[in-house]
Design a protein that fits this description.
The protein has 116 residues and is mainly α. α2 runs antiparallel to α3. The radius of gyration is 30 Å and the shape is elongated. The mean pLDDT is 82.
Amino acid sequence: MALPQIEEVRNLSAEQLNEQVLDVKKQLFDLRLQQATGQLEKTHQFKHLRHRLAQLLTVEGELKRKAAAEAASQAASAATSEADSEASTQSAPVVETTEAAPAPSEAAAETAAEEE
């Protein structure tokens, strides 16, 4: 029996991927149980199922990264268009000035100078 091909996995939907992952994990559990009880005859099934699980998880990760990249590009394009529209309608910027507290190193230097 040949190892499963990843092209088969790439044609699955996200829901089918999740179902397949759960099914393969259950099959691996059953194989481990059979091995522990001495009933397992076809030990090569471990290799096939682990290979299939790796394929499923790889494709699942690819889909997640692709969706995240699309979301990021949409957010970036939305931010760019929003910034462009703000720039065209924006008047002079309003800047509030408040007196900031001295930095801790400045405050320590001032107290050291006062103590001398």
